[in-house]
Structure formats: structure tokens, C-alpha cells
Write a sequence for this structure.
């Protein structure tokens, strides 16, 4: 068992998908099996990290054997571990679903060259994006975070443009520019940090950061950039076209995983590294924008006529909840609960949204359109997909025992105990609006059609339907294992610096 | 110290100019150029942090390495953005300002 | 739609929104400059640290030491970004490398014959120089990329007709070698990207050389903006892009 105690496991979630991505670009045959093997190996490495984390506490890894101010450190703390787990599980689902999706499209005789080409480039880009996300969650260096952010945005933009339609290319172009602008703003913030303190390591910055004009400017710039990338309410304009026009597996990746990356950095910076220089006004402002996102996104989602756009706007709304949590952390004794709530919301939303986009993609492929009005009675032909969509919807509304419920419940109690009851009104209103837009679709899907207008279904593989259900059910059951998550999140201090050695 | 200040000033001015051009210009190529000017500005400010007055120790190599990384990143992103812009021009006569019409297409197969 | 676009084309002398954007950016820039000059300079960066560990890095140039050894992880990821850009460009384009056989003028040919080997030599020199002076994989790679661009615009046949597989191997050789050396550290029971003591100098040079080749190829194929002809699937059957164009 000593091999599972090696400190080298912390780099495995970065290296394994990276090797897979390179191989997929080089080999081009059996790419799905490479990707499947990679995603299983990634799950194994993340599970090993979970075990190490439970045994030894948070981990720190010195890249190249150089100590912190000079070298780059990786760090694994509770939230990062949970994000890794989320990416690993969603990633397996997405990999399986993408296989089903592409083989279904290739089996159609029309344009199958184009679809083959899309599949060929999907795999390396997706594995590279996976690498980038894992590297982002593990990174412990403020400049290295910039590099991973760029890695994420380049591969995500390439994926978003993969469908080849003019609309998706325009959207991807705008997406690329926006995320570039966000990264540049972040980089300028990093420059200010380096000017002021002369170090880049996050842990060391946390120890020496004191409020001052340099740090304030740096934090403003980094926050603006990351908010742009996370698509908080007034800055969300790029998200709906980019996510709605991409291929279904890509939409699932973008909405379920990619936006969480920049949010993760933002949350780490605000509440861990530079927590001392955050003012209550800034927290309230962010919370206000979050509330705006919840209301505006939900209203837009209710208005939409197309299924994919509805799901996309619900992403805008759900991201708002994550920011409502910001002002709630102002009171000292409940900030741990807010951390837990946010992590729950992020994970539940990731699983549910991935499942929803998969279901929407399958419906689109089978029916040939996604006009909500004409989707009556799809349940007859696609029972599993409809079920998956409904369960994911339960999560977005926040009914028990789903992960979304736990997250919202924790937020509500935090809002009430800290005396900021106005935020709880927004949370409840958001849930009501979410139930409107979820039931608007679900009631259509489960309607019995009056005539025999059900289209003939083309035969399809189980891979198109089951991954969505699998992820939706995970999101639903997330609430039941809530205590374990708070256990992981509460382990905060660095207990052991695992000795190198005992290599592979 | 004057050199250092000049670098900082120019870098921040370039950043601001690029930012304005990014919003003001609607042509895709101009937007790409604007972002490039912005990143040049950031690199200029970054490289200025390596400056040490004469006799105050060695110049700092870390900003050099960071700028080199940044330049490579910006080259890759520019290449991707250019090819995307080309494809947008090829497949449609859209400019970015007119794209709203096509955003509602969903995942259309045909 | 047409009316709208016409209105767009007509250049109005005064646009209030533009003015607002202008004022906002000027304000932001002023704020940035003000913040820049009020920062108390308390630190001297990492220069002292770098100088202290320089002898153990295996190279004499501090920038190369930071780039490949102390912060080698950044560089590893950065090489991958270049690669992703190529994959992205290939996934977007349906065009092969320019195929048309053009009669190249003798002057052009003579210039290319003279310059291309010279540029390769300069690239090799820059890579080698990287261990003790300014230079290194990216500088060398950029010159190599320039040589590739020169060959491409001169429409010499061999780069246009290159097959997909050798090109992909060329693109990947640098990243794969870098990754392999990085993993060597783990196999030796130490951290990722730890170079074995006495070999680190020569290993770094090898990494730089292979990466320079890959970077040069990457930049040249980014410039070409297409893919090798045999990389396209069923190009001859249905020119899908034509149909798309008609539809719009």
C-alpha cells in the first residue's frame, strides 16, 4: 500500500489527462477508449488523493523540489479536493455521453465527414481542458493560476467553436475575446501583487498581505477579470450564445465545469488569501449583483422558447446564488457554513447542469428541434432522458434531498442567523422562479400527446441516455452524504508535508 | 527611476488605449489587435518590475520568465482568434455587432 | 437587417456611448496610474533567491534557470497552450495547406535558399546560447518559425505536401520530451520536474532543442492556417462549406 502514500499522486490529475490529450492528437484511433481509460485513471488518482487527504490532511507539493518563493507549489485543500472529485465524476459522464452523441451523429448519413472531424478534435481538446481545470484547482501560485486560466480559455473557446455553424463561431470568438480580456485584467492584478510583495506563492501571500492601495487595485482588477469569466449578471452577455450554440457535450462541459474554474479562484482569493482586505461594501455589492443574476437569469429562462437557451439562462441564474453567499460570510462564526453551502451549490449545479445539457442534446438529436412548445410527450420515446431532465430540475429548484436543497438551506440559515434576511427573500424568489421554468418544460415532456405525432425514434445507444440519468441521480443524492463533505471542508490546517520518496 | 516610471506609464496607457479600442471598434481584426495592444501594455508594466536602481542588486529574472510565458500565451490566443475571425468572415457576412440574430439557432443540425 | 447594417455603416460624427466608453477608460487608466505610483516599493522580488540557487539549476543564465527549472511547470503548461492553439486551428479549418503549384521566381528561390539555412543556424545558436546568455527555446523556435513562414510564402513544395503524421510527431516531440523528463523526477522518487543533479545542464539543453523544433513547427503551421491535405476526412465528397455559404 506504500505506493498509495506517495506524494506524487497530487500531480496525477494533471499529468494523466495531459498524456491522454497528447496521445489522442497523435494516434487518432480508439480515441474514445483512450479517453475512457484516462477518465477512470483520473478517478483512481483523485480517490487516492481523497484517502491521503483523510489520513494526512491538506497536502502541499513543491514542483521541481524548489521551495515556495522560488518554485511553484501545488496545494490540495478541502475545496480543491471536492472540485477535483466533481470534475472526475462529471468527466466520466461527459466522456461516455460524448461517445454516444458522436456515434449517433456519425451514423446519420448526412454530413458524416463533418461529424467525424468534430469527434476527432473533440477528444484531445476535452482532455486538455480537463488537464487545465485540474491544474487550476491544484495550483498554489498566483501566476501559475493565470497560465491555467489561459489554458482553460483557449481549449474552451476551441471546443465552443467545434460545431462549425456561423452562430457558434461568432459566439466562440466573442467568448475567446471576453475570456482574454478577463485573463489580462487578472494578469495586471498579478503584476500589482508582485510589485507590492515580490512573491507569487498563495500561502506566503496570505501571511504577509495587508490592506493597502496596491493590494486594493490588484484585487479589483483580478476580481473584475474573474467576474467577467464567471459571467456574473451584468457581465453575462457572452455566456448564453456561447453555451447554447455549442455541441451538446461541449455545452455540458462549459456550463458544468468551466465557469466553476474562475469562480473557484475568485472565492479562494477573497476568502482565503486576501481575506483581510475585503470590505463589507464590496461583499454587499457582489451579493447585489448575484441577486440581480438570480432574478434576471430566471426571468429570461422563463421567457425562452428553445430548450437549450432556457438551460443556459438557468446557468446565469444559478451562478447568482454563488455570489449571494459572499455578503453572508461577513459574520465570523458562520463563514464555515457558507463555504460548505457554496461548495454544495457548485457541485450540485455542476452535476445537474451537465445532466440537463445532455438530456437537451439527446432530445434535440432525436426530435430534430428543441422548441419547447412542440416537445409534448417526449417521455414516450425517451423515458430515461425525460426522467433525467426532471431529476436535474428538482436539483435546480432545490427540493430535498438534492445537493441544491442543502446548499440553499445552508445559505438561508446563514442569512437568517446573521440578520441579513433580505438575501433569504431573493433565495426563495429564485427557487420559485426556477420551479416555473423547470416545470414549464417537464410538464410538456410528461404530457400525453393527443394524436400520434410522436416521431419515429432512430435507434440509439444507451450511452446517449444513461450518463445524464447517472449524473442527475448523483446530484439528487448529494444531500444524503452532506456530513462527509463538511468533514472534508473543515480539515483546513496543513498537517503533513509528505516526504518525497516512495516514488512510483 | 525615470526609466521605470516611463515604462509603467506607457504600459498602463497602452492598456487603456487597447481597452477603449476593444469596445469602440466593431471589426473583428481590430478587436484582436486591441487585445494584443492591451497585453503588450501589461507585459511592459510587468517587465518594469524587474528594474533595480544601479547598485541595488541584480535585476530580477522572474518577471522576464513571466513575460516570456505571457507572450507565448498571447501568440497562441491570437492565432486561434484570427482563424476564428477568418471562419466567421467566410461563413457569413456578419460583424460582431449583428450577431444577435443568429444566437437563437440552438444546436441546429442542418 | 439590411437597414440596420446600412445605419451601422454610416459614420456618425458624435456617439454618446462611445464618449462614455472613452471617459470610462480614461478614468480607469488614470486610476491605474495613480495606484501604480502610490504603491510603496517594499520588496525586491525574487532576484536574491534566484541568485542563491542559480548554481544548482544547471544553467548559467538566470532567465533560463527560472523558465525551465524553478518555474518549469509554467513553461510546461505554456508549451501545451501552443499545442492546443494548433489543435484548435486544425479543428476549425477545412482548408488544406496551400496546394497550388506556383512558379517561383529565381530571385525568390535564391533568397530563400540563402536565408532558410542561415535562419536555422541562428535558431540553433540561440538555443545553445540560452544556457548562459539571453536566448532559449522560444527565441530559437520563433526564428525557426520564421524560416518556416519564409518557405511557406515561397511556395516551395516540401512543406506544403508534408503528411499529417510526421507533422504531428514534429509538433509533439518537444512537449512529449519535456513531459518525459518531468516524469523522470517522479520515477527517481523525487518531485515532478526535478532534474537529476549532474545531468540537468544537458537535459535542459535537450529540452530546449526539441521544444524549439516543435515551437518552430507550431508557429509555421499556425501561420499556414490550414492542415496537411491528408488530414482532412473525405474532402472530395461533399464540400460542406460551399453549401453552408449558399444557405447564408
Amino acid at each position: 500500500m506504500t505506493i498509495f502514500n506517495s506524494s506524487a499522486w497530487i500531480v496525477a490529475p494533471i499529468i494523466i489527462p495531459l498524456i491522454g490529450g497528447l496521445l489522442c492528437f497523435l494516434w487518432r484511433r480508439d480515441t474514445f477508449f483512450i479517453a475512457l481509460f484516462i477518465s477512470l485513471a483520473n478517478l483512481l488518482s483523485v480517490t487516492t488523493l481523497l484517502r491521503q487527504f483523510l489520513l494526512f490532511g491538506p497536502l502541499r507539493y513543491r514542483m521541481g523540489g524548489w521551495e515556495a518563493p522560488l518554485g511553484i507549489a501545488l496545494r490540495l485543500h478541502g475545496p480543491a479536493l471536492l472540485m477535483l472529485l466533481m470534475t472526475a465524476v462529471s468527466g466520466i459522464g461527459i466522456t461516455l455521453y460524448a461517445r454516444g452523441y458522436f456515434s449517433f451523429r456519425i451514423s446519420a448519413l448526412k454530413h458524416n465527414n463533418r461529424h467525424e472531424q468534430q469527434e476527432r478534435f473533440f477528444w484531445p481538446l476535452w482532455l486538455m481542458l480537463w488537464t487545465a481545470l485540474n491544474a487550476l484547482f491544484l495550483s498554489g501560485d498566483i501566476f501559475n493560476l493565470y497560465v491555467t486560466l489561459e489554458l482553460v480559455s483557449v481549449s474552451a473557446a476551441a471546443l465552443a467553436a467545434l460545431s462549425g455553424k456561423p452562430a457558434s463561431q461568432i459566439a466562440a470568438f466573442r467568448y475567446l475575446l471576453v475570456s482574454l480580456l478577463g485573463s489580462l485584467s487578472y494578469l495586471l492584478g498579478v503584476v500589482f501583487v508582485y510589485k507590492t510583495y515580490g512573491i507569487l506563492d498563495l500561502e506566503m501571500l496570505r501571511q504577509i498581505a495587508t490592506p493597502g492601495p496596491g493590494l486594493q487595485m490588484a484585487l479589483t482588477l483580478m476580481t473584475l477579470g474573474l467576474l467577467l469569466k464567471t459571467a456574473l449578471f451584468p457581465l453575462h452577455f457572452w455566456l448564453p450564445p456561447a453555451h447554447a450554440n455549442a455541441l451538446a457535450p461541449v455545452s455540458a462541459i462549459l456550463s458544468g465545469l468551466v465557469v466553476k474554474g474562475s469562480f473557484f479562484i475568485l472565492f479562494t482569493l477573497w476568502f482565503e488569501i486576501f481575506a483581510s482586505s475585503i470590505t463589507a461594501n464590496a461583499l454587499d455589492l457582489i451579493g447585489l449583483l448575484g441577486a440581480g443574476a438570480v432574478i434576471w437569469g430566471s426571468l429570461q429562462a422563463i421567457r425562452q422558447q428553445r430548450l437549450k437557451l432556457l438551460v443556459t439562462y438557468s446557468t446565469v441564474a444559478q451562478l447568482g446564488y454563488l455570489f449571494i453567499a459572499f455578503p453572508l460570510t461577513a459574520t465570523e462564526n458562520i463563514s464555515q457554513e457558507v463555504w460548505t453551502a457554496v461548495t454544495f451549490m457548485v457541485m450540485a449545479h455542476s452535476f445537474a447542469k451537465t445532466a440537463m445539457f445532455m438530456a437537451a442534446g439527446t432530445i434535440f438529436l432525436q426530435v430534430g428541434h428543441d422548441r419547447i412548445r412542440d416537445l409534448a410527450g417526449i417521455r414516450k420515446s425517451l423515458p430515461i432522458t425525460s426522467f433525467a431532465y426532471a431529476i436535474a430540475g428538482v436539483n435546480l429548484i432545490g427540493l430535498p434531498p438534492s445537493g441544491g436543497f442543502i446548499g440553499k438551506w445552508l445559505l438561508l440559515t446563514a442569512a437568517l442567523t446573521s440578520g441579513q434576511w433580505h438575501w433569504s427573500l431573493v433565495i426563495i424568489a429564485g427557487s420559485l422562479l426556477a420551479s416555473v421554468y423547470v416545470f414549464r418544460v417537464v410538464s410538456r415532456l410528461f404530457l400525453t400527446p393527443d394524436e400520434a405525432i410522436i416521431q419515429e425514434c432512430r435507434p440509439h445507444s444507451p450511452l446517449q441516455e444513461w450518463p445524464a440519468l447517472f449524473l442527475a441521480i448523483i446530484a439528487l443524492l448529494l444531500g444524503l452524504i452532506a456530513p462527509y463533505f463538511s468533514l472534508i471542508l473543515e480539515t483546513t490546517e496543513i498537517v503533513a508535508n509528505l516526504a518525497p520518496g516512495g516514488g512510483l | 527611476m525615470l526609466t521605470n516610471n516611463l515604462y509603467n506609464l506607457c504600459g498602463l496607457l497602452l492598456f487603456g488605449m487597447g481597452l477603449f479600442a476593444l469596445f469602440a471598434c466593431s471589426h473583428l481584426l481590430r478587436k484582436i489587435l486591441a487585445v494584443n495592444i492591451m497585453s503588450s501594455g501589461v507585459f511592459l508594466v510587468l517587465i518594469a518590475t524587474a528594474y533595480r536602481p544601479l547598485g541595488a542588486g541584480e535585476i530580477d529574472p522572474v518577471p522576464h520568465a513571466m513575460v516570456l510565458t505571457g507572450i507565448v500565451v498571447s501568440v497562441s490566443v491570437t492565432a486561434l482568434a484570427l482563424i476564428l475571425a477568418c471562419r466567421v468572415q467566410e461563413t457569413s457576412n456578419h460583424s460582431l455587432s449583428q450577431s444577435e440574430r443568429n444566437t437563437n439557432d440552438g444546436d441546429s443540425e442542418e | 437587417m439590411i437597414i440596420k447594417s446600412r445605419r451601422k455603416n454610416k459614420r456618425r460624427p458624435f456617439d454618446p456611448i462611445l464618449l462614455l466608453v472613452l471617459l470610462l477608460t480614461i478614468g480607469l487608466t488614470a486610476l491605474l496610474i495613480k495606484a501604480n505610483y502610490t504603491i510603496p516599493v517594499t520588496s525586491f522580488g525574487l532576484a536574491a533567491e534566484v541568485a542563491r540557487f542559480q548554481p544548482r539549476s544547471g544553467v548559467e543564465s538566470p532567465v533560463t534557470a527560472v523558465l525551465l527549472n524553478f518555474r518549469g511547470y509554467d513553461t510546461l503548461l505554456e508549451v501545451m497552450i501552443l499545442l492546443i492553439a494548433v489543435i484548435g486551428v486544425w479543428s476549425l479549418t477545412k482548408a488544406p495547406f496551400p496546394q497550388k503549384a506556383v512558379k517561383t521566381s529565381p530571385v525568390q528561390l535564391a533568397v530563400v535558399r540563402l536565408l532558410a539555412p542561415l535562419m536555422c543556424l541562428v535558431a540553433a545558436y540561440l538555443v545553445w546560447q540560452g544556457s548562459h546568455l539571453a536566448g532559449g527555446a522560444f527565441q530559437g523556435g520563433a526564428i525557426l518559425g520564421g524560416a518556416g513562414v519564409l518557405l511557406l510564402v515561397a511556395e516551395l513544395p516540401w512543406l506544403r505536401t508534408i503528411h499529417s503524421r510526421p507533422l504531428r510527431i514534429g509538433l509533439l516531440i518537444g512537449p512529449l520530451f519535456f513531459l518525459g523528463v518531468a516524469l523522470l523526477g517522479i520515477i527517481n522518487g523525487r518531485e515532478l520536474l526535478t532534474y537529476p543533479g549532474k545531468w540537468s545542464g544537458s537535459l535542459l539543453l535537450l529540452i530546449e532543442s526539441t521544444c524549439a523544433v516543435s515551437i518552430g513547427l507550431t508557429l509555421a503551421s499556425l501561420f499556414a492556417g490550414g492542415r496537411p491535405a491528408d488530414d482532412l476526412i473525405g474532402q472530395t465528397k461533399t464540400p460542406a462549406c460551399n453549401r453552408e455559404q449558399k444557405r447564408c
Q: What stands out?
A: The two ends of chain C are 13 Å apart (CA to CA). Chain C touches chain B through 47 residues (CB under 8 Å). Residues 200-224 of chain C form the longest helix (25 residues). The mean pLDDT of chain C is 82.
